[in-house]
């Protein structure tokens, strides 16, 4: 219980502006400050709003995430700071030894391109002089009043547009950075942090790039979700491209027009697949849990077309596309993906 109290206190202080002296003094003007902050956090993440540190709330608090505080669902950073010029420069100050310099540079370049496609912004890398956005890998206390906490906690943070440290993005040097689905994909984390560098706050849309918690999603042909496109265009206007970009929107489970690509059972649960997402419905739980397919099975494609459970082997088979048997189109069979299920 004491450990959970520390987790709750640290989380609410870091991400929900709970004053450090308020945890013991729980009442302010007749209001229980801790309960109200917990409710704010639960509303943001779509949890059951109880004001209590229950299991699903604690599980959410333990997930790897961005170090920037959450803003109660606002699309833009409070005060709506923005760059007054659209030709922005960036400079990579140092590198992580876990990737080659070329791999780091590619991840950073591709991350900026996501935002340039959706807006009139242009990003240019410089090797000398002062850049608008400085990018660096640091560990623990690194002089900006936002120390990192070692592996698997806060992955990175960035600062809103402005002079000096404004716009800069810092990455925890103690994380394991990759360009794959393993550990933490630098491209995905960098793209998220650069959203902050441009003036976006966190989104409560779990499918948005600006959602605070890390979740791997397939990076080949990755496009900016619609929630993020709407956010960046609200600040800087439409894209300079002749055809305005559109991105995927997160399905809403209660949408009466929602149809699923595939449905199967697994160990008493029901799994619903749609595009790059799947939902888990447990008969004993009220909340339906939504996840990226790639979070559980990084090698699987999106758009699963059929699924079934193999009870005897504790497996599910997922199907997409068709393949031919013996190169004969007279014997077309679905391409199957046999996958174990991990909690």
TrEMBL record:
Question: Quick one: which residues bind Ca(2+) 5?
Answer: 263, 307
Q: Which GO terms describe its cellular component?
A: extracellular matrix; extracellular region
Q: Where are the Hemopexin repeats?
A: 251-300
The record places domain Peptidase metallopeptidase at 79-238
Residues holding Ca(2+) 2: 132, 166, 168
**Record flagged with keyword Hydrolase:** yes
Is Cell membrane given among the entry's keywords? no
Q: Which InterPro entries match?
A: Hemopexin-like_dom_sf, Hemopexin-like_repeat, Hemopexin_CS, M10A_MMP, MetalloPept_cat_dom_sf, Pept_M10_metallopeptidase, Pept_M10A, Pept_M10A_Zn_BS
What are the UniProt keywords, alphabetically? Calcium, Extracellular matrix, Hydrolase, Metal-binding, Metalloprotease, Protease, Secreted, Signal, Zinc, Zymogen
- Cofactor(s) this protein requires: Ca(2+); Zn(2+)
- Localization: Secreted, Extracellular space, Extracellular matrix
Q: Which residues bind Ca(2+) 3?
A: 149-150, 172, 175
- Record protein name field: MMP8 isoform 3
**Native organism taxonomy:** Eukaryota, Metazoa, Chordata, Craniata, Vertebrata
